[in-house]
Every structure is written in structure tokens, then in C-alpha cells.
Amino acid sequence: MRLVPDHSGRIRRSALVEFTFDDAPVKGHAGESLAVALIRAGHLHLRDAPEDGAPRGAFCCMGLCQECVIGIDGLAVESCREIVAPGLVVTSFRGRA
Amino acid sequence: MMLQTDIAVIGAGPAGANAALAAARQGFSVMLLDEQPLPGGQVWRAKSTAILDAPATPEGDAGDRLRQSVKRSSVTYAGDARVWQIEPVEGAWQLHMLKGGRTAPLRARALVIATGAREFVQPVPGWTTPGVLGLAGATALFKQELALPGKRIIVSGTGPLVFYVAAEIRRLGGEVAAVVTPNSQGDWLRVLPAMLPRPDLLMRGARWIADLMASGVPIHWRHAVTRVEGGSRVRGVGFRKLAPDWSPIGTSQGLEGDSLCLGNGLIPAVEAAQLAGVALAYHPELGGWVPRHDEDGATDVPGVFICGDSAGIRGAAAAEIHGRLAGLCAAQHLGADTRKERKQLRPIHARAARFGTTMTALSIPRAGLAQLTTEETVICRCESLTRSAIAAEIAGGARSSNAVKSGLRAGMGACGGKFCQTTVARMIAAADGRAEADVPPPTPRPPLRPVPVSVLAGDFEYSDLPIPKPAPL
Ligand SMILES: Cc1cc2nc3c(=O)[nH]c(=O)nc-3n(C[C@H](O)[C@H](O)[C@H](O)COP(=O)(O)OP(=O)(O)OC[C@H]3O[C@@H](n4cnc5c(N)ncnc54)[C@H](O)[C@@H]3O)c2cc1C
Ligand code: FES
Q1: Which UniProt keywords apply (chain A) (predicted)?
Q2: What is this structure's pTM?
């Protein structure tokens, strides 16, 4: 028995659009954060840590920790604050430590 | 051209937005700045434009009401605006904000700081694994994107937030593997009397817990997650029973899940106040170091006011009233007479704050929890510094947060120390048997938020900024 109803079937989202993450096609809803679209697509590992090269991904979800940083147009930006748009070319900071 | 306003408010959560509204009602021009696109703050964060329709929630409704009030008022709102520097210039306050990839100055005669809080997470082995999110951070994902970090999620941490997070995961269609919380059922029973003035919140919390029990989701009271397994992504966690001081005892048990939400209470975000020259005082019951302020949010620095969680963790309801008080105080500073209204608000604020600080008390980690951070655990995520590396620096003579920072770069990484400095300060205090009150946080340096070098060189397009609404007469 549940006392907290399941609302997942009642949420309507914008159309899916396609962008690329390290050349792999990824679909996300236009307007949602890149971090969420990447998590949904199973791309949790966004960058390698300095020194030990350990995998890292979104952590604070509020633009503070810098763990979710990815590259767009040569700029390092926080994927939790960047928005999905069609045709976006997103690169990870994996394997560059 | 330089943007000018009577009062600038940093942060558009319940505190800052209400400060702006109260000051504007006194006839002053007010600019309200936030790095989020819309007002609402952490508790009432607005949905992203990707959400076309969704069932109503109390947080969503309260946020919508606040956003409407700001829109209808004379307050000028600048969203996606990150304040990265605050300095006194010619008897006024000059803020620098990053907006639309450019930086612009704004000059104000008075400043209200309402920058809210961030969360404290006691580091455990593996907490840097992709798929581990902050407990409060996860709520940002829920509110803004109505999305979950995984399918089978472990929820671990202190205070009421664990149960809110578990309930939201279930509401959004996910599976909660288990709730692991250092609080005992006795801790909760003891605060029930203090919760009675808010029967609405009491009922809501009771419903969350009853739902978990009725659905067979295990709740591990007086336990903590002690390690995260999986390496490149979360596969599960180990968890252990805690002693009354929250030090781990007993054998490790295992849980499987593909994601972990982990958090141990909130810490006031005081860097903006520090930059403005406000001194800090240590108030563990309010979440640690808080800018010195009086009841109404006035600080020792003339023209600078502070409110909401950035003045001490007292919760959303108190933040709304505290914001009004601070906004009225700023108006008084500029010549309005707001004494009567403030006198009426003070007892209302005190009541709301009593409830809020009761919840804070449940959320604050007890001393033993620090033992979860083993020698090899990474503490500083930005520089991948382990507990043993930081302990060696302290043993070598670093006796202040600033010393550890300059010796090791702990706290000099991209996040500016926001997720390690409390842990480091507690280690310094423990090493010498000193009180935490003897180890203040490091001196913040601008920028408060990362600013790309290219931006500092570029010119700002004033068309990127909202046109200030005229001040009401
Ligand atoms: C991630 C998170 C989630 C939370 N979720 C809940 C919840 O679900 N329920 C609950 O009861 N409490 C929650 N809390 C506690 C909550 O913060 C308070 O109860 C309440 O929101 C405090 O209101 P406030 O206005 O003081 O601060 P906040 O609501 O935190 O507002 C502060 C605002 O300042 C902005 N800001 C900060 N620094 C800058 C800057 N340099 N430039 C521009 N803008 C800036 C932030 O974007 C934010 O919108 C949460 C806290 C955090 C950190
Ligand atoms: S997840 Fe922390 S900055 Fe994006």
C-alpha cells in the first residue's frame, strides 16, 4: 500500500532533441539541464579527478562543486546549469588528467 | 553607464525575495539578483522549461506565489546573475555579476545578503563515485527537473531531509532501496512537542515515514553509510550501526543500489557576507559560522543586512519573515521609518525560528560521525586530497584553515573549499584539542563563483541586463 502517490505518469515534458556527448548521440528534453539528460542516458562519469584520475560526476546539483563540468565550444561549464538544445556538441573531461 | 539601485539583494529564496518586496513597498528601487533563472531559492526552486505539466506540490505552489509577487511588484529581478565580487566604492556597494557570459557592475546604497546554505557531507570512502549526490542537491534535481539520479536509490543522512528525499523519489516513480539515518526514533520523539505548532509539517513527515513502512522500505535508524562500492559508478554501499555519539560500531552490512543521496545537514553560505566585511561568530546550533547580526538582520557593517539561512539555518518559514525584517531594516537605513512593522514581525520570526532550529538540531552531525572519514578517504574533492595528506600537513604545523589551504591547496580548488573546509577545520581543532570556535573558515577571495578569464577581458552588453523598473513614488 502506498501513501505517497506515484506521479511519474502525469509529468509532461518537452520534445526530445539530440545532442552529442564525446561524439555519442544523446537524447534530452529541450530546456532540461544537461546533467539530467546525461544521467538519464547513463553517462554519469563526466570527468577525471586531478592526481588520482578517479571518475567523477554531478554531485551538488547547484553549481558549487564543479564536479559536473563539461566542455561546450571550448569553454568549461557546469552541466547542472547548462541547458539541453538540439545539436549541442558536448565533450567530457575524461582521460585528460 | 553604471547600473544603480537603492537596494541590491543577493539571493531570491524566501529570505531575499521577501526582503526585496518589503523594501520596495517602502518606496525604494530594489534589484534582486539570483544565479537561478527564477526566484524561489533552494526550497522553492522553479521547474525547468522542459516540464510542460506536472501535479502540484506544496513547494511548487509556494514558489509560484513568490514568483508572482515579485513579478507584480516594482522589484527588478535579474536571473542567471551570479554575484562574484562585492566591494565598497565611493560610499556605496559595488557588486559584480556574471550574466549571459559577461560581467557587469551594479552600484547600490544598501545591500541585503540572502545567499542561503549549502550542504555538509561527511566524507566516506567512495563518496566521490559518480552516482553519489548530495541529499539536498538531489532535491534540486527533483524540483527543477522532476528527475531521479538512478532507479534504485539509497537515501542516507540526517534530519527531516532524508524522508523528504525518499518520498520524492517514490513520488517520481523511483525505488528507494533503504533509508539510512544517524537519528534514532527517540531523537524524533523528543522533538515532537516542538513540532506541534506546525501540525501541517508534522503530518506530512508522518505520512512520508508511514508510506515507507507500509511499502516495506527498510529504515535503518541510528545507522550511517560508511562506504560506497562500485568504483566508476555506484553499485551499493556498506552501512553500520552508530553509537549515541554517532561513531560507527558493529559489523558492516551491505545494500545494493545504483545511486546514493548523502548529506548531513546544512551550512550557512557566508562568503558573500565575509567579502562585504561582516565578521563571523560561531553558533553550532545555527549550522556553524554565521555572520554577526542582530534580530532584524543588521550587521556591524553599515548598509549591509543579512537574512535567511545565510544568517543561520532556521528554515524556510523563518527565512520569509527574516527577509522582511532585513528588507525593512535596509529601508530604515535609507531613511524610512519601519520600526513599528519590524516590532510586529519579531515574535512571528522567533516562533518560526524555534521550529526551524529544532530541525537543524536533528540534522547537525554529532562528533563521532567524523570517524567515517578514514585515512584514505578523499576530503578535498577538487585536489583529490585524502585525510592522511591533510593530517600530515596539520601535524607539520598548519594550525589554521588558511595555513592548510596555502600549504596543500585544500580549499583552493575549483569549488573554493565549499565541500571540504568544515571537515578540515574540525580536523585542525581535534588535532590540538581546541574548540571548533577557535578555527574559523579561511578568508574568502573573489571570485565567489568561477569566472572565465575570457569574461573578465570582454565588454558587457547592457542589452543583456533587465531594464530597471522605475521606483514607486
Ligand atoms: C540544495 C538545498 C536544498 C534544500 N531543500 C529544502 C527543502 O526541500 N525543504 C526545506 O524545508 N528546506 C530545504 N533546504 C533548506 C533551505 O535552503 C531553506 O529552508 C530555505 O530555502 C532558506 O531560504 P533562503 O532564502 O535563506 O535561502 P535559499 O532558498 O537557499 O536562497 C538563496 C539563493 O541565493 C542564491 N545565491 C547564492 N549565492 C549567490 C551568488 N553569489 N550570486 C547569485 N545568487 C546567489 C541561490 O541561487 C539561492 O537561490 C535546502 C537547502 C539546500 C542547500
Ligand atoms: S553538480 Fe556541482 S556544480 Fe554541477
Answers
A1: Oxidoreductase
A2: 0.96
